[in-house]
Design brief:
By secondary structure, the chain is mainly α. The chain folds into two domains: about 80 residues, Arc Repressor Mutant, subunit A (Orthogonal Bundle); about 140 residues, Four Helix Bundle (Hemerythrin (Met), subunit A) (Up-down Bundle). It is about 75% helix and about 5% strand. Strands 1-2 form a two-stranded antiparallel sheet. Helix 5 runs antiparallel to helix 11, helix 6 packs antiparallel against helix 7 and helix 7 crosses helix 9. The longest helix has 25 residues.
Length: about 230
């Protein structure tokens, strides 16, 4: 389990145990970090992650609060964090994605229009320098959707979209917890786009495989550690 995951688990346990209730303010950062045996950096990352999925509410100049959700809804939100820790089905979808999507990408290198390939650059540039995780994942889904459509095979495109959508939560959690994931994702996306623009199906297929395998490897390791 990563340091960030351990910090998240510690805060979650305080909520589950009733020590922190909806609407409660978290203790001061140095006090909570010392009590949980965590570094302030790892605690800060955990708070950031939990605020992204609306379990915590960070109020500038005031403090950090447990959201005022009903306890059952709060636990549903926590399910977002642990769903793929408990169920390795997501790995099966990622394996399927690793088989299907590179083939669609190779076809797109031969069939996608020049304008549509150029538009991928605009899509990637639209993220700016500091995208949120939600923005990154939405951009990621749209990037791969457009390439699948560019394969000019509606059946294959439909398969890609169906399989890819089932891995969205895992990809979001990776974006929250894995260091450098934004830079890595964008670099791999640009490499795929450049292979498409150069009309190099084998190179496009290879980059798509590397890109998807990286997500799969991280999820597999996360499940093993969990």
């Amino acid at each position: 389990m990563s340091v960030t995951d351990a910090a998240i688990e510690a805060i979650k346990q305080m909520i589950v145990d009733g020590e922190l209730k909806p609407g409660d303010r978290l203790p001061r950062e140095p006090d909570l970090a010392e009590r949980l045996g965590l570094s302030r950096n790892s605690l800060r990352e955990a708070v950031r992650a939990l605020s992204l999925i609306h379990v915590l509410d960070v109020r500038q100049g005031d403090g950090t609060y447990v959201t005022s959700l009903e306890p059952s809804l709060l636990m549903d939100a926590m399910g977002f964090v642990v769903d793929f820790h408990r169920d390795d089905t997501v790995l099966q979808f990622l394996e399927a994605r690793r088989v299907i999507e590179p083939a669609a990408t190779a076809l797109a290198a031969a069939r996608m229009s020049d304008d549509d390939i150029a538009d991928l650059v605009t899509l990637l540039d639209s993220l700016g320098d500091t995208p949120t995780v939600d923005e990154l994942v939405a951009n990621d889904l749209e990037f791969h959707r457009r390439i699948a459509v560019g394969s000019a095979n509606p059946v294959l495109s439909s398969l890609v979209e169906s399989v890819s959508g089932r891995t969205q939560r895992a990809r979001t959690w990776r974006g929250i917890t894995q260091e450098g994931v934004v830079e890595r994702t964008l670099a791999e996306h640009r490499a795929i786009q450049q292979a498409l623009a150069a009309r190099q199906p084998d190179v496009a297929r290879a980059w798509a495989t590397v890109h998807i395998a990286g997500v799969e490897q991280w999820i597999r390791q996360t499940l093993v550690e969990g």
